[in-house]
Amino acid sequence: MKAMTYRGPFRVRVDQKPKPKIEHPNDAIVRVTRAAICGSDIHLYHGLVPDTRVGTTFGHEFTGIVEDVGENVDNLQAGDHVLVPFNIACGTCFFCSRDLYSDCHNSNPNATAVGGIYGYSHTTGGYDGGQAEYVRVPFANIGPTKIPDWMDEEDALLLTDACPTGYQAAEMGDIKEGDTVVVFGAGPVGIFAARSAWLMGAGRVIVTDHLDYRLDFVRQYGPAETFNFQEVGDVVLYLKRITEYRGADVCIDAVGADAHGDLLQTFTGLKIKLQAGAATALVWAINSVRKAGTISVVGVYGPTFNLVPIGNVVNKGLTVRANQCSVKRHLPRLFEHVREGRIDPKAIITHRYALDEIAEAYEVFTGKREECIKPVVLPAA
Predict the structure, then answer these.
(1) Beta strand pairing status for 375-378 and 351-354?
(2) Most buried of 12, 292, 317, 364 (most Cβ within 10 A)?
């Protein structure tokens, strides 16, 4: 089969790989019909996630047709059209039993760090992802979810990660009615976080980024107030000024390790990699939220240290909540939101590529070219 493969930082290509087979009675084999490139994949592409091995196939956002199932899989059959949450979860461990599917203790040998994730380095289990013609889906009784007849497949694709992650980012902010919410990053997750903040009662939503085309989009889709952080000088002072010098009630880091805006963070985190990426957005969030406010972190950082002002967290009495999204927990509510028209996930898709064009897709997306917000890959195209 054809599959995207990682060849080292800034290098991906399409190769022939063996078609996956059933390896365990709980497995399913899915023929991929849609995959997406996520902002988190860019962290891999840039070499910021440890133990990303040459030959790995990325892709944790995908939908497809079930082709085969193991003998223990009783809720799926060949021909079912499914969306596959990016979490690989057993459904029975201490964490899964509490709906914390992203923390599954049985899907990842490195379980003290994170649960299993498709196509996201060996720190998350070493599973191949969905930017390929076929993918093996472990614990198939738990993760894969049949796409409702009424749902567009590209809406379903965005429900495998980006939309639920933005939704959970807002949820973890514990937003109270009338709160001012600041979202750092106007990529897909930040866009969905801004939209979701309104659903949870926000009275004001502000989004910052350095790319005007993204800010234009989220200004309409959020809807949200926006500003380009490159144009305001001191970002923290600017946010204090526009929030009556108190600070926002909730700040959401939807950027993670590839953040721009601070020379020291960029040099130490992105250039010489002395820390796990640039924690610029997280530092801004800590310093610009009000005392006793809440920080929600869904931006991805590597499992090593970062330069973060923890003293400010303590002295300001902040609540910090962070996690990979537990997609399955949010799907019933998000299905309702999509059906009722409160969220339109597919509206953020701007580019579509054949699998053979995967290298170009990564170059366009990571280079912020052609006003690309969300690229989709069609393996059968």
Answers:
(1) parallel
(2) 12
166-322, which class in CATH?
alpha beta
| pLDDT of res. 75 | 94
Instruction: Give exposure, 87-119, as e/b (b: 16+ Cβ within 10 Å).
Output: bbbbbebebbeeebbbbbbbbbebbeebbbbbb
Question: What does CATH list as the number for 2-161+326-378?
Answer: 3.90.180.10
Domain borders along the chain are 2-161+326-378, 166-322
Whole-number Å distance between alpha carbons of 23 and 157: 25
Question: Closest Cα partner for 139 from 115, 170, 107?
Answer: 107
C-alpha to C-alpha distance for 54 and 192, rounded to whole angstroms: 32
Hey, do 2-161+326-378 and 166-322 end up sharing a CATH topology, with the first three levels equal? no
pLDDT < 70 regions, the chain: 111, 381
Backbone angles phi, psi at 185, to 5 degrees: 110, 120
pLDDT at 111: 67
